[in-house]
Amino acid sequence: MSNSYLAIELSAGILLLLAYQKLYKLYKDHRPPGPSGLPIIGNIHQIRTRPWLAFTEWSHKYGPLFRINVAGQTTIILNSHKAATDLLDRRSALYSDRPRNIVTRILTGDMVFAFSQIGPIWRRMRKAAHDATGPQIVKTYHPLMEREALALTSQMLNFPTQFNDHIKRASASLLMAIVYGTPIMHSDDPLVEAIQQHVARNLASAAPGAFLVEYFTWMEKLPRWMCKWRRDAEYWFEKDSAMLNGLFVDSKARQESGDDVPCVVATLIENMDEEGLSEADAAWLGATLFSAGAETSSGQMEWFMISMILHPEAQKAAQHQIDDVVGRGRMPTLEDYEHLPYVRALVKELLRWRPVLPLGVPHRLSQDDWYEGHYIPKDSIVIPNVWALNHDPVVYGEDAEEFRPERHLNDAGNLNTPTKDTHDESHFSYGFGKRICVGRHVANRSLFIEIATILWSFDIRAPLDESGKTILPDSKPKRDGSLVLRPDHFRCEITPRFPDVSVVIRMYLDDEQLSKS
């Protein structure tokens, strides 16, 4: 009898082994294609600089969906509209999680919902963020946007060579006003430096390859004294929490004293019980919206300046429409939004042409999946190559590499029907599915009014060197160690378009702005 049981067990074991081998071979044979790599590190050495361009080049060989090995981590790269929207939008229930970023979790206490894995806290914060930045409530922020656009042009008028500092101040000030109700008047405000360093730390920690522990996770178990990255992250979490809580408490006190300036914190305070948020949750949520908005919008505005230098014909076309609609006796406002389709097309083209997040933010697959004959294992990192999607000649034409706002306009000069599956944006720079940028309505309107106001006020040109030769900026810089893609340092000439520019600007400045202009 015992021999019979032994035979049965052996047979069952052999069958299970054969089944496993068959399944393993099936999965192995159906893995997405991809470039070969080196032992241990995989393909890391091939994607250190401009990885979006490397991925775009590889897609010509391996197709719109391929696999790379990042120190043993299966990483799937999506390079076509169809693959990206099929998986990240239509299968968002499977593809909306985030990778577990060890350093970022410690640095932020896992309180930055843009990087957090899906769970109760993420859901509460995401809903609260949407309620505070949705398309209807954004209209209440229009006066703040117009004020900051005016302040930006005033500073560019007075100190044109420092335009980059002015752009960063304007972006930080606008987001401070929208989130906390308190604009920043000067770039030398110590709060600006503190917040910018906070933003830089968070973005740098989330950048691929920033810390070896993200590749070799066994390092997480090393003693604390051996892990400078851990000690630094814990230190800055305590410091940043104190700063952000202070900003929230100050804003809350102003609201309670009768300050009725619309801002995100006011909405959060009103909805805290309904949303199930603690004060710490609300403080970090406000900081997340500030951080994401200030860094990306200032980077996008730097690309705007470069686009105007390299494409003066687009600059002139926008200025012509602004002159027709606005005239020269007043400055543009957001009431002009519907009447300036070329400027709106220019904003869309700017976001398409130079996405500041060329690889978006990585997603994580929550269970095994199959797509068009390819097996994608659970816990794969999934990266949308936003750069490739935004420059796809099949979708945007053979001139997809060029900056041309007209591609978003019809023959009558009105906006075209948005590109399919782009959530009405005509580009993929705001992301996908459940992870689409909640602040995109704020971003679209603030970019519009800043660009319209600058183009109403100034001509933007390339400078000349000592021999009279034009100095053109580099339009394809390398990543600088952050998630956000910014241009390399560049110069430009900014000159008033007509004699009364300064007169009209000063008509709009309030007493506080005049004293600081």
TrEMBL record:
Could you say which residues bind heme here?
437
* Annotated keywords: Heme, Iron, Metal-binding, Monooxygenase, Oxidoreductase
Q: Which Pfam families match?
A: p450
Q: Which InterPro entries match?
A: Cyt_P450, Cyt_P450_E_grp-I, Cyt_P450_sf, Cytochrome_P450_fung
Any one Gene Ontology molecular-function term assigned to this protein's record: monooxygenase activity
The pathway is: Secondary metabolite biosynthesis
Name what cofactor the protein needs: heme
Gene3D superfamilies, per database record: Cytochrome P450
Decide whether keyword Iron is in the record: yes
Q: Does the keyword Nucleus apply?
A: no
Family of this protein: Belongs to the cytochrome P450 family.
Please identify the protein, giving its name as recorded.
Cytochrome P450
